[in-house]
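Hmm, how's this folded?
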Amino acid sequence: MTELLSAHSITSALNQSNSPAHIYMGYSGGVDSHVLLHLCTSITAIRDRVTAVYVHHGLQSEAESWAIHCKKTAESLGVDFMVLRVNALPSQGESPEEAARNARYTALKSLIDVNDVLMVAQHRDDQLETVLLQLFRGSGLRGLSAMPESTVFGKGLMLRPLLNVAKSAIDDYAQTHALSWVNDPSNLSNDYDRNYLRNAVLPLLKQRWPSCDKTVARSAKHCADAQVVVSEYAETIFRGVFNEADKTLCIGRLRSYKPTQQALIIRQWFQFLQLKMPAQAFIERLQSDVISATEDREPELSEQGYCVRRYRGKLYCLKVVTPEIVRENIWSAGQASLSVSKNQTLFWQLSSVGINQGQWQKATIIVRARSGGEKISLPGRQGRHTLKKLFQEAGIPPWERDAIPLVYLDDKLAAVGDLWICSDFYSEQAQDCIRLSLQKTVESSV
C-alpha cells in the first residue's frame, strides 16, 4: 500500500528543535524540495517563519531560470525567498559532486543562527543511495550510519523531515496537489556515482527486494546507534592521549592501546580537528611508519592537504602550507610594529626588562631570516649558544624554527623573535626597556 504523506512529518521533526525562530528551506525547485516547501506552508503556525533558499551553483545554463521559477513558487505560497550564489568549481582532490555539496552547505551555514533550522528534502531513497555509496567506499560505522534526521548545522540544526518517507509517497503528493517543478537534466547522466545508482542499480534492486529502501534505512539506524556507543568510548580514551595545549597526541600513551583502539583515537583526533576521516590504509601506515618509529626518528605522513609528524613523543597534525618566509626589513625605532612575513608581525612595547631602550633607539634595526650557524649569548648563561641547540632545548619543532625572525641591532644579533635576548642588549631597568612580541595572524597547524 502506498504511503500517505502529510504535514505530520514536518511537525514531528520540528519537535526536536524547540520552536525555531527561523526555518530556512533548501529549495532547488525539484519535486522533493517543492513537496517539502508545500507541506511547510500548509502549517499556519510556521508559515511566516519560513524562507525558501535557492543555491545558485552556476553549473547549469538553466540555473537562472530555475531561480526565477523558485522565486515565483515561493511568492505564490506566501513565504520569503532568497538566492545564494556560490562558486561550486572543484578544487584539487574534490569531485564535482563534493565541490557542489561543500559550497552549498558552506553558504547555507552562514544563514543559520542560534535557534534557527535548515530543512532539506532528502528521503528514504536518498538514504539508500548514501548507504550503498559508503559501503562501496569501504566506510566504517560512521559512514554506514548515513544521514541523521537531525544534526547540528552552523549555530542551529539541520532537519531532514522526509528521511523516512518513500520517494513514491513524495511523487504521489506532488501529483495529487498538481505541483509544478523543474527537472535537472544532469540527473539523467550516469557519469556521477549517485545518478548511476539511482538510474541503473536501484530499479533492479527494487525488482528483487521491493522494500530495500526500508530495510537498508533500518540497517543505517542500527549502525548509527552502534556509532554512538563507539564514539562515547573513543572520546574517553582519546582524552587520555590528547594534549589540549598544542592539539597533539602523546605517542607513549597511544602505544599502550591495541591497534584497533589506536585507530579509534586517531579518527577521534581527526574529528576534533574537523578534518576528513582518514582512510584505513592511511591509519595503518601511520601506525607502522610513524607511531612505531624509533625515538631517534622524526617521520611524517602526508595526505589530503595535511601531514602528521612525530616530534619528541608527540604526534602533530599540520596543514600543508607554504613555509613562512621572513622578509629582511629595516625596522624604524619609532615604528611600533613590523610585518616580518605573510602571517607574522613583530611588536615592541615598553617593559621593565628586555632590550635597553637607549640601544634600541640609536641602532639600525634589521629583521632577517635564519641562514644557519647563528650563535647568541644569553643573560645568566656562560658562553655562546647555537640557535639550533636553543631551539632543541626549548622543544620548538623543526618546522617552526625557520619562521622565527632574527632581530639585529647595528648588525649584531640582539633577539630571536620574542624568545631570547642577547646578553649584550639585555637590561632590567624599570620602564627603560623594549619587550618584543611575535604575533601570528593565521595558525600554521590544523
User: Anything to note?
Assistant: The first helix runs from residue 8 to 14. The mean pLDDT is 89. The CA atoms of residues 57 and 86 lie 5 Å apart. The radius of gyration is 29 Å.
